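Write out this protein's structure.
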Amino acid sequence: IGSAGIVNFANALATRGLFASIEGLGIQNNDVGGDGMRALSKAAIGGAMSKLVWLDVSDTPIGDDGFGSLVQAPAAGGLRNLRWIGASGNSIGDAGVGVLSTMSRDAFSHKLQGIQGIQGIQGIQGIDLSQNNIGDEGLCALAAGSGPLDALWMLNLSANAFELEPAGAGLRALAAALRGGGFRAKGHLKHIKPTA
């Protein structure tokens, strides 16, 4: 399925209410691209796929822009039940992870202010970001925004661009966030895989 096909699929979801009770969507290994991901995210913000629990968009070249639109959807009121995102092999870099950390902080601050119905990405339990282009800058951004990802128990960062040996600034920041209680490390985070 190409980007145009995904855009048509997203439009059908938005206008016809198709698959209203769908809980999982796997569109991996397709040419979704940024345009397709933006269309799916827009449909989700409009109420489509409201019961979606898992979404696998691995190997769909969505890039930073597409990933950014995906993680913005929950903060805008869509995908409130989403618990797992598979986004490996998508050329997601520091900018995409930066949007994730920014959205988590923004959504969290709205929740703290008592605005009802804005859950942001608090419910996400697992994110597979392996085989992307996340460098030390992206890991530092993720570590800085980690606290609001309360339910996260799995984060796969294998085969990315950050420095492993010796540990670069990104891994040091992530380790410090974990030691300081980021990701609620003592309560929820069970698996983090930053290996090459």
